[in-house]
Amino acid sequence: MTTATRWQDVAEKGSVLGIRIVVAVATTLGRRAVGALLHVVAAWYVAFHPGVRRASREYLARLRGRATLGDVYRHVLCFARVTADRVFLARDALGRFAVEIEGEPYLRALQRERRGAVLVMSHLGSFEVLRAAGDVRDVPVHFLGYFKNARMVNAVLRELNPAVEARLLEIRPDDPTFIFDVARLLEDGELVGTMGDRVGDDGKAALVPFLGAPAPFPTGPYLLAAALGCPVYLGFGLYHEPNRYALHCEPFAERVVLPRAGRAEAAAGYAARYAARLEHFCRLAPYNWFNFYDFWSAR
Question: Of 83, 93, 171, 262, which is least surrounded by CB within 10 A?
Answer without folding.
Answer: 262
